[in-house]
């Protein structure tokens, strides 16, 4: 009995081994980072356009310093100190410091910091207060029972137009994007020249925003009595979808497993047969996921296209924004309904993904 007890106690679980702490980074490297922060502070002080200052009373005298450069410098020192106490490597600490410097530089060039300080006062005074009140007390009767200004079309019919535009643009744009992605990827393309040409075309398509595409197509096909109509919006969304799907799916094709491709080549398959049996089955789940994501984007983008006068709820939203002195509650109703529609589309997309993927 004693031997059994001794044996069981000797086989007890060993105590957990304490993980050794990483060594402290070299001090001289962190002193260089402090020097970089000081140089950035001097640069921002020298190039500043804001004249606000902070006064620092010291008892016997009062010092002053430019407000935003000093705050940025303190944030940079806090980042360096945090990295030092957490024993972060010098390169990672330099990366964190670079993020702060670049953020400050970008914000100061667009006067972002000054505008942020004005937000609290703007939200509680003037027109903004009335606008917020209208947004949070929407007129739901306007959406259900009103007509588009100057027409006999009901407002709820504009939502149906928006949904139809999104469906058509998704189906056409995603399948064209699939074809361009296949031609752009060196894994599934005919040759290197075709791949580079398709990548250049995809870059051009992506570089033009959807609003610019809508303006271009509206100039090509003309307008109607109700604005530019749905055709210009659908064509713009198709180009928008092509750019997204061709880019994302092309990267998925580049990363496919080469084993099935080699097996198809060994069996004597030509390029089209190899893509059909080896590439398409591998990327089809990604294609379905990207297509559902693009459909969600189309609902939102169709509302944004209202700024150029296209059909759908976006056009009505643009008209109501144009009469903001009277239409705060109408704009609020459209925006809240848009949030609800996007949430429903997102839930539907999640359900379809679970069923298909």
TrEMBL record:
Coiled-coil parts of chain: none
Membrane topology, as annotated: Multi-pass membrane protein
Membrane-spanning intervals of the chain: 27-47, 92-113, 159-183, 330-352
Keyword Transport among UniProt keywords: yes
Domain ABC transmembrane type-1: 159-349
Main location: membrane
Name of this chain's protein: ABC transporter permease subunit
Phylogenetic classification of the source organism: Bacteria, Bacillati, Actinomycetota, Actinomycetes, Micrococcales
